[in-house]
Specification:
mainly alpha; RNA binding; about 1200 residues; single chain; 4 strands; DNA_pol_V/MYBBP1A; flat; two-stranded antiparallel sheet; nucleus; ARM-type_fold
C-alpha cells in the first residue's frame, strides 16, 4: 500500500522525513510541526476515514523506527507521537498492524539488524504510551504490548532498561482492572524474587506498581517478598545501595533508578546524610570511572535538597573532593562522560551558593574545598572564585575570619599544611574585590594587612596593638612564602582596576588612601622589631629610604585634596610610583633605593614646574617627565601584572605633562627591530671602542715615523699581497670565532670526539692515525653537535622576537592612553609615523602576533585621527608641519594595501588640519576665532592672511606631487591616496581641480591619466561644494568640466572603447548633475556620443548612464525609443505580408511614435533641457538664463526622479530604469 501511495504523496511531505532524520533537535521539532500541519490540511473530515498521506506517513514512520541512519529513530518517534496526539481517528490496531507488518524478522537479517527491529518495536510502543493512546487500548492490546516488551528484555539485555521503562509507563496509565488482568501476570514472577535477585529494572517496576496500584503491592506483599512493609527505610539502605551499584554496569548511561531513588529520599524520613554515608565509599573508594560517574550524578541531584552545613560537609568529604579535583583539573578529555558529570556538579554548586539564603552553607562549601590538602588547577580555582564572588557581605566577612582562624591552625606546622596555606592566601586575595564589599575600604585594608604581614614578616611575639599579630607564626619556606607574596601583589593589582566608587577617579583616590594606610601599617611593623622580624635583610639605607617615602606619602595624602585637578593627577601619579617601588624594597632590591631617590627628585621638580616643555632643546639633564617615562617603560617590561597596571595608571595621570622628548622614548620602542634592543644598550660603548681604536692607530703611525715614500712602498706591498691578506683575515676571523665559542659548546665537541680529542699542545706526542670508519663516526657526531647548536640559537632568536613583540604590545597600551587623552599638535606629529611604520611593517603578513600588533596600531592611528586636539596652545613651526606633510606623501609610496594607503592619506589630512586649525567636519579653510573688539580686528585680518598663505603652501605641495603622478614621473604614488584626501576635504583642495581639468583636456595625455584625473575629480563633487565655493566659481568650473568631457568623448570610438574612462566620465557627470542646483547644459555632442556607444556598456557603466539621463529628464525618451525598436522588430513579419503602400504608411506611424518628445527650436540661443545659454561678448563669458518652458520640463523630470514627489511617478521612473538596464 505504501508503494502505491508514495507516488501520490506531495513532495513537501516527503521532504519532512529527511528533515526528521537530521542530528538537530530544533529541526526535528520544526519538521514534526510542519508534517502535522500538512497532514491536517489533507485530513479534512475524519469521519470519512484516514487520508492516503496520513496512512503513508504512519507506515513510513513505523518502518523508520528500525533505521540506524543519523537521528531517524529520534525524529520518527517524535513525529509518530505527535500524529497520535493530533489525529484521534488513528486507533491502536492500526499502529500494532503497522508494527507487525514492517517490524518483523525474516531469514535475511543479521543479529545487529534484529536488534534494530526490536528497538523499533519498543519505540513504537513508547509512542503509543507517551501519546496517551494506551488508555483507550483494550485489555488484549495492553497484554500483547507488555508480552512483546518482556520478550525484548529477554532477547537483548541492552534493551532491558528502555523496555522496563516502557512497562512502568504503562503501569502508570492503565487502570487497576486492566493492570491486574493484562500486566501483573507478566511481571509478577520478577517482583516476587525480593532483594535477592533485584536489579535496577526490577526496583523501578516495584516502585511504579507500589505508587499507582497500592492494592496489588501493599504492605503484606512487601513484607512477604521483600522482608519489610516499606521499601525505603533505614533498614533497607544497604539493599538499595546494592541495587545502585548494579546500575554502574550501564556506563556511560546513568540508569533511571538513580533519579527515582533521590525522589523517594526527598519524600521519605531517611536523611540524605545517612543515605550518603552508607554508600559513598562504594562509588569513590576505588575511583573507577563508571562508579564515580554515578556518584557525581547522585551528588548533583542531592545538592538542591541539602539544608544544613552538616549535610554539605557529609556530601563533600576529603576523599570525594580529591577525586573531584583530579577529574576537573586533570588530563581528562572534555568529552569524557565523567568530566561532563563533574562539570555539571561544579556548575550546580555555583548555582546552589548563589541561591542559598544561609551564609553558613556557602561558607561550608568553600571550607570543604580548601581544607582538602590537594593542589587545585585553573578550572576549579575559577569555579571557587565564582562562588566567592557571589557571597553576601555578611558571608564574605565570616568566611574571611574563618580563613584567618584556619591559617592560625595551619601555620603551626607549615610543611604539613602547605596546600591549605596556599588556599587560604588565594581565597583571601579573592575576598579583597567582592561586589558585596566593594565600598568597605576598611575591610579591604584588613585583608591586605593580613596578606602583607605573612608575605614579608614572621611574628615572633604576641601583640594586641598590631593587627594580625595576636599569635606567633613559624617561619615559612621560600616556596610557601612566594605564593603569599604573589597573592598579595595580585590583590593590589585587582583592587587598582576595580571600581569601588561611582567614578574611576574616586576609585583611584580610595585605592591610594587604602595603600597609604597599608604603608603606614608596614612602617609600624618595621619599627616593632621585638614583635615581628623581616624575612629579608633591611639595611640602614633601605630603612632610611622607606621611612622617607612613607612620610612623603602621608604628606601627599593630606595635601592632594586641597590642590587643583591638575596637581591632584600629579599627586596621584607619584603616590602610585612611591607605593609600588617602596613595596619592592621588601622583595626585589635591585636598584630599589636609587629608583626611589630618582622619584623623589622628579616629584620635587614636578611640583615646582609650571608648564611643560614644548620644544626640543639642548639641556644638561633630562626633564623629570623623561626620567619618569623611562621608569614606566621599565615597569612595562616586567612580568608582574601589578607593575604594568601601576605604570598604565600612572601614565594616564601624567598625559598633560608628556613632552616630545619623553614621547620619543616610547616611540623608539615601537621602532625596534629584531636584535635592536641589544644594540641600543651597547651602542654608546661600541662608539667609544671605535674611537679608541682609531686613536690608537693614529698614535701608532706617528710613533713609527714613516715617511711619505715609505708609506707609498708599504701601500704597493699591501696591494700586491692583498690576496694573502684576505686569507689571513679569514684565518683571523676563524680564530676569533673559535675564541668566542662558549665552554658548553666546547664540552659538547669533546664529548663527540671522545678519545680523539687533542689533550696536549705538545708536538712530540702524536696520536695514532684514524681509519675511515672512525672518521665517519666522528663526522656524524660533530654534525649532530653543530645541528643542536643551531637549534639552540634559533630557539633563542625566536624567544627574543616573541619577547620584543610582547614589549611592543605593552608599550602600545601607553600610546593608547595618550591617544585617548587628545594629545596636542606636537605630540600628534610625533605619534603619526611610528604608528604608520608599525602598520606598514605587517602589510604582507597574513596571520600571527605581528599582524595583530599592526592591526592594533592601525586602529590606534584612526583613533588619533579623530581625537587629535586641533585647537591647542602648543606652538609648532610651520616648517615642521610642511616637512611632516612631505614625509607622509613620500611614505605613501612604500605601501600598497588600500587600507594602509588610506591611513597615510588620513595622516596627510591630519597634518593639514593641525597646520590650518581645521576641525574634522570642516570643508575648507576658515578664519581663526578671536576675541571681538577693535584691538583684535587687525590681528584677525593678519591671521586670515597667514592662513591663506598656509593654504597656498599646502596646495602647492599636494599639486606638485599630483602633477608628477599624472605625468608618470612618480609611479609609486596611488590614486586612492589623492582620492581619499579630495573626497573628505573637497573645498580645501578645490584649486587642484584646474590641474585635473587640464589633464582631461590635454590631447597628449594618455587614456590612463585622463581616467585618473576624471576619477579624482568625481570625488570632489557633492551637494555642499557649490554653496561653499560660490556660484561664480562653480559656473566657471561647470563650463570647463563640460568642455573637458566633450573633448574626451570626441576621441572615443567603439573600436577603441576605454571602459574605465567611460565609467568615470559617467560617474563625474552624474555627481555633477546631482550636486549642482542649476547645472549647465550637457551638450548634445556628449549625450549623442554616449547613446551611440551604449552597445559597449557594461553593467556598471549602464547603471551610471541611466542615472545621469534620468536626472536630465531623458529617461522617457530613451524608454520610448527602446519600446519603438521592439515594436519595429515585432512588426517586420507583418509588414512583409502587406502591400508597399500599407508598408509605407505603417512605417511612418512607427517613426512618429519613436520621434523625441522635445524638438529643437531654431533661435539664436541653443535649446537645452533646463535653460538657454546665450553667447556673450568676445571675451568668452557666458550668461545663464532660465527658460520657463525648460523649467517646467525640469520639474516634470524631477518628479520622476527618486528625489521627486509623487509615488506613482517614482514607481514609473524605477521601472524605466530597470527596462533600460535590461
Amino acid at each position: 500500500m505504501s508503494s502505491k501511495i508514495s507516488h501520490k504523496v506531495d513532495k513537501s511531505i516527503l521532504n519532512k522525513f529527511w528533515q526528521l532524520a537530521e542530528c538537530n533537535q530544533t529541526k526535528i521539532i520544526q519538521a514534526s510541526k510542519g508534517l502535522i500541519e500538512d497532514l491536517s490540511l489533507r485530513q479534512v473530515d475524519e469521519s470519512t476515514g484516514i487520508s492516503e498521506e496520513l496512512q503513508y506517513s504512519i507506515s513510513r514512520l513505523v518502518k523508520g523506527l528500525a533505521s540506524s541512519r543519523q537521528s531517524a529513530r529520534h525524529g520518527f518517534s517524535v513525529a509518530l507521537c505527535q500524529i497520535l496526539r493530533n489525529f484521534p481517528s488513528i486507533n491502536v490496531d492500526m499502529i500494532l498492524g503497522a508494527v507487525a507488518e514492517h517490524l518483523k524478522f525474516t531469514q535475511k537479517e543479521s543479529r545487529s539488524e534484529q536488534g534494530n527491529i526490536l528497538l523499533g518495536k519498543v519505540l513504537a510502543y513508547m509512542a503509543l504510551v507517551q501519546s496517551g493512546r494506551i488508555t483507550s487500548a483494550t485489555q488484549e492490546h495492553v497484554q500483547k504490548i507488555v508480552q512483546s516488551l518482556v520478550q525484548v528484555c529477554q532477547k537483548r539485555s541492552f534493551l532491558k532498561q528502555i523496555s522496563t521503562y516502557a512497562i512502568s509507563l504503562i503501569v502508570s496509565q492503565v487502570n487497576t482492572e486492566i493492570f491486574k488482568a493484562a500486566v501483573w501476570s507478566e511481571i509478577e514472577a520478577e517482583l516476587t524474587q525480593g532483594w535477592t535477585g533485584c536489579s535496577p529494572d526490577t526496583l523501578m517496576l516495584l516502585l511504579a506498581c507500589q505508587k499507582y496500584h497500592p492494592k496489588m503491592v501493599d504492605k503484606t506483599f512487601l513484607k512477604t517478598y521483600w522482608g519489610l512493609p516499606k521499601v525505603f527505610c533505614a533498614e533497607n539502605l544497604k539493599n538499595i545501595w546494592n541495587v545502585l551499584k548494579l546500575s554502574i554496569e550501564f556506563f556511560p548511561v546513568v540508569h533511571l533508578i538513580n533519579d527515582e531513588v533521590i525522589h523517594q529520599l526527598s519524600t521519605s524520613k531517611i536523611s540524605f546524610t545517612d543515605f550518603w554515608t552508607e554508600g559513598r565509599d562504594l562509588l569513590f573508594g576505588k575511583e573507577h570511572h563508571s562508579a564515580v560517574n554515578v556518584g557525581l550524578y547522585l551528588m548533583t541531584k542531592m545538592l538542591p535538597h541539602l539544608k544544613t552545613p552538616e549535610e554539605i560537609e557529609c556530601l563533600l568529604p576529603a576523599n570525594v573532593v580529591k577525586v573531584l579535583v583530579k577529574i576537573i583539573d586533570g588530563k581528562q578529555k572534555k568529552k569524557n562522560p565523567v568530566y561532563e558529570s563533574a562539570t555539571r556538579f561544579i556548575n550546580g554548586l555555583v548555582t546552589y551558593v548563589k541561591s542559598s539564603e544561609n551564609a553558613e552553607n556557602s561558607i561550608k562549601v568553600l571550607h570543604c574545598f580548601f581544607e582538602t590538602q590537594c593542589p587545585k588547577g585553573t578550572h576549579l580555582t575559577r569555579s571557587l572564585d565564582t562562588i566567592i564572588q557571589s557571597l553576601s557581605s555578611e558571608a564574605a566577612k565570616k568566611y574571611g575570619e574563618n580563613l584567618m582562624k584556619v591559617f592560625k591552625k595551619y601555620i603551626k606546622d607549615p610543611r604539613e599544611n602547605m596546600m591549605g596555606i596556599q588556599h587560604v592566601a588565594t581565597h583571601i586575595r579573592t575576598l579583597v574585590t567582592l561586589p558585596s564589599t566593594s565600598g568597605d575600604h576598611a575591610w579591604q585594608l584588613h585583608l591586605l594587612q593580613f596578606l602583607g604581614l605573612h608575605s614579608f614578616w614572621t611574628v615572633k611575639a604576641k601583640s594586641s596593638a598590631l593587627p594580625h599579630c595576636s599569635y606567633c607564626t613559624q617561619p615559612m619556606e621560600d616556596k610557601l612564602r612566594k605564593p603569599f607574596q604573589d597573592n598579595f601583589l595580585k590583590a593590589l593589582s585587582n583592587l587598582l582596576i576595580y571600581n569601588t566608587e561611582k567614578s574611576k577617579t574616586s576609585s583611584l583616590d580610595a585605592y591610594l588612601d587604602t595603600v597609604c594606610q597599608l604603608c603606614k601599617y608596614f612602617q609600624d611593623l618595621v619599627e616593632a622589631s621585638e614583635v615581628v622580624s623581616l624575612v629579608v635583610d633591611f639595611p640602614e639605607d633601605e630603612r632610611e629610604q622607606w621611612v622617607k617615602t612613607v612620610v612623603c606619602l602621608l604628606g601627599m595624602q593630606e595635601k592632594s585634596a586641597a590642590k587643583s585637578p591638575e596637581k591632584s593627577d600629579l599627586h596621584r601619579a607619584f603616590m602610585l610610583l612611591f607605593v609600588f617601588h617602596a613595596l619592592h624594597l621588601f622583595m626585589s632590591k635591585e636598584n630599589a633605593v636609587s629608583t626611589l631617590q630618582d622619584i623623589h627628585v622628579c616629584y620635587n621638580k614636578a611640583v615646582k614646574h609650571k608648564r611643560r616643555s614644548t620644544v626640543k632643546s639642548a639641556k644638561s639633564e633630562p626633564e623629570w617627565i623623561e626620567v619618569v617615562t623611562e621608569l614606566l617603560l621599565s615597569m612595562m617590561s616586567q612580568g608582574s601584572n601589578f607593575a604594568r597596571l601601576a605604570a598604565k595608571t600612572t601614565f594616564s595621570c601624567l598625559t598633560d605633562h608628556v613632552t616630545p622628548d619623553s614621547l620619543g622614548l616610547i616611540t623608539d620602542v615601537l621602532k625596534l627591530e629584531k636584535g635592536d634592543e641589544n644594540e641600543l644598550i651597547s651602542f654608546e660603548d661600541e662608539d667609544e671602542n671605535m674611537m679608541e681604536n682609531a686613536s690608537d692607530m693614529e698614535v701608532g703611525d706617528e710613533e713609527n715615523g714613516l715617511s711619505e715614500e715609505e708609506k707609498d712602498i708599504e701601500e704597493e706591498k699591501s696591494e700586491e699581497d692583498s690576496g694573502d691578506e684576505d686569507e689571513s683575515e679569514e684565518e683571523e676571523e676563524e680564530e676569533e670565532e673559535e675564541g668566542e665559542v662558549d665552554e658548553e659548546f666546547r664540552n659538547a665537541v669533546k664529548s663527540a670526539l671522545g678519545d680523539a680529542v687533542d689533550k696536549s699542545d705538545s708536538e712530540e706526542e702524536s696520536e695514532p692515525d684514524l681509519d675511515d670508519d672512525d672518521m665517519f663516526k666522528f663526522d656524524e657526531a660533530l654534525a649532530q653537535v653543530f645541528k643542536n647548536m643551531r637549534k639552540t640559537k634559533e630557539a633563542e632568536a625566536k624567544e627574543n622576537k616573541k619577547q620584543l613583540l610582547a614589549f611592543k604590545s605593552r608599550v602600545l597600551d601607553l600610546v593608547e592612553i595618550l591617544v585617548k587623552s587628545q594629545p596636542p599638535a606636537d605630540l600628534t606629529l610625533d605619534l603619526i609615523f611610528p604608528l604608520l611604520e608599525l602598520v606598514a611593517s605587517t602589510e604582507k603578513l597574513k596571520e600571527g602576533p605581528e599582524l595583530d600588533l599592526g592591526k592594533r596600531a592601525g586602529n590606534m592611528f584612526r583613533m588619533l585621527y579623530k581625537k587629535a586636539k586641533i585647537h591647542g596652545n602648543v606652538a609648532v613651526s610651520r616648517d615642521r608641519y610642511l616637512q611632516a606633510l612631505n614625509n607622509a606623501i613620500q611614505f605613501s609610496t612604500k605601501v600598497t594595501t588600500k587600507q594602509i594607503v588610506n591611513d597615510v592619506s588620513d595622516a596627510c589630512l591630519l597634518v593639514i588640519r593641525l597646520l590650518m586649525n581645521l576641525d574634522l567636519g570642516s570643508l575648507g579653510p576658515s578664519p581663526m576665532k578671536t576675541r571681538s573688539g577693535k584691538a583684535q580686528k587687525e590681528k584677525k585680518v593678519e591671521m586670515e592672511r597667514d592662513q591663506d598663505s598656509v593654504h597656498q603652501l599646502v596646495i602647492d605641495s599636494v599639486q606638485s606631487n599630483l602633477k608628477d603622478f599624472l605625468q608618470k614621473k612618480k609611479q609609486k604614488l596611488h590614486t586612492e591616496f589623492f582620492y581619499n584626501m579630495f573626497s573628505k576635504f573637497p573645498v580645501l583642495f578645490w584649486p587642484i581641480t584646474e590641474t585635473l581639468l587640464t589633464t582631461m583636456q590635454d590631447d597628449q595625455a594618455k587614456v590612463f591619466m585622463k581616467t585618473q584625473a576624471c576619477y579624482l575629480l568625481s570625488g570632489m563633487l557633492n551637494k555642499d561644494v557649490e554653496k561653499n565655493i560660490g556660484e561664480e566659481t562653480w559656473n566657471e568650473f561647470s563650463l570647463s568640466l563640460i568642455a573637458g568631457i566633450s573633448r574626451i568623448m570626441r576621441g572615443i570610438t567603439k573600436e577603441a572603447f576605454p571602459t574605465k574612462l567611460i565609467h568615470d566620465v559617467c560617474v563625474t557627470m552624474r555627481k555633477y548633475l546631482f550636486s549642482s542646483q542649476k547645472p549647465l547644459e550637457i551638450s548634445s555632442e556628449i549625450t549623442e556620443k554616449l547613446e551611440s556607444l551604449r552597445g559597449s556598456f557594461n553593467t556598471d557603466i549602464r547603471k551610471e548612464y541611466n542615472m545621469m539621463m534620468g536626472k536630465l529628464g531623458r529617461t522617457a525618451n530613451l524608454n520610448q525609443n527602446k519600446q519603438a525598436k521592439k515594436r519595429k522588430n515585432k512588426e517586420k513579419v507583418a509588414l512583409s505580408a502587406q502591400t508597399p503602400e500599407s508598408k509605407k504608411a505603417k512605417q511612418s506611424q512607427i517613426e512618429d511614435i519613436a520621434s523625441p518628445v522635445v524638438k529643437k527650436k531654431t533661435n539664436k540661443g541653443k535649446q537645452t533641457v533646463h535653460g538657454t545659454v546665450k553667447q556673450g561678448s568676445q571675451t568668452g563669458n557666458s550668461s545663464f538664463e532660465l527658460d520657463p518652458k525648460a523649467s517646467l520640463k525640469k520639474k516634470n523630470s524631477e518628479s520622476n526622479t527618486p528625489g521627486g514627489s509623487g509615488k506613482s511617478k517614482k514607481k514609473n521612473f524605477n521601472k524605466k530604469n530597470d527596462s533600460i538596464t535590461e
